[in-house]
Amino acid sequence: MIIHIILNKMMLEDKVKEIGNSIGNATWKGLEFTVDLYNQAYERYPKTTKFLSTAAGTVGGDYIAKKVTQGEDINLRDIAFTTFAAAYQSYFYPKLINYTEKIAEIKPIKQAYQKLGISKEWAKTFIIGGLFFIPNMLYWGLLSVKNKVPITTKAALQATKAIAIGSIPYLGVDYLVTNKLKKRYCLPVWSVAEVAYNTFLAGVAYLTKR
């Protein structure tokens, strides 16, 4: 009886491992296919691909925020505003990676982070986070206009605090983008992070309402 139980347990463990390996292989193949498809699109239509990659994050993130937290459907006005944001982001955001590299090589800044014992890779991560502050504030202003929310000093201070706190979860993503990935992948990676982060915030907001 004991041997039978042990054998069943071993068979179950093997089955679980087999299913896990199958899921892992399928996920990896799906990722390879997606990356290959993206590379083909990027080679043929780089500007369009960058724009669509960014729009997936701006439009998708806004939809999640409105639908879950406010219970509203996204409309054409929402799409127009977030699409405009995607247009300037797809052009400007990749350039921040180049600026980050140049700023990290400025002698006083380089001496400062080396004295603090911070590696160049992490210094670039913090620098790009800082560079994102102004465009993120512009995006906040754009969303405020879209949502017909008054732009006041108090609201701006709250937005500054929210952006500063919100930048913390992005540190890992910014590290990968500035140090490990090819620049062509920065926009889709940032978009995935934006959608994931908005989904998390929307989920928290939904659960706290219940």
What does this structure look like?
The protein is an all-alpha fold. Helix content is 86%, strand content 0%. It has helices spanning 2-44, 46-70, 76-104, 107-115, 120-131, 133-146, 153-167, 171-179, 186-209. Helix 2 runs parallel beside helix 9 (186-209). The model has no long low-confidence stretch (mean pLDDT 80).
Quick structural gist:
The protein is mainly α. It is built from 9 helices and no strands.
What distance separates the N and C termini?
Answer: 49 Å
| Largest β sheet strand count, sense and barrel closure | none
Which bin fits the share of residues in helices? over 70%
Which outline best applies?
globular
* Total number of beta strands: 0
List SSEs in N-to-C order.
HHHHHHHHH
* Strand-residue proportion: under 5%
Rg, nearest Å:
22 Å
The low-pLDDT segments are none
Which class best fits the helix and strand makeup? mainly alpha
Mean pLDDT score, rounded?
Answer: 80
Compute the number of helices: 9
Index terms:
210 residues; 0% strand; 86% helix; mainly alpha
Topology:
Layout lengths: L1 H43 L1 H25 L5 H29 L2 H9 L4 H12 L1 H14 L6 H15 L3 H9 L6 H24 L1
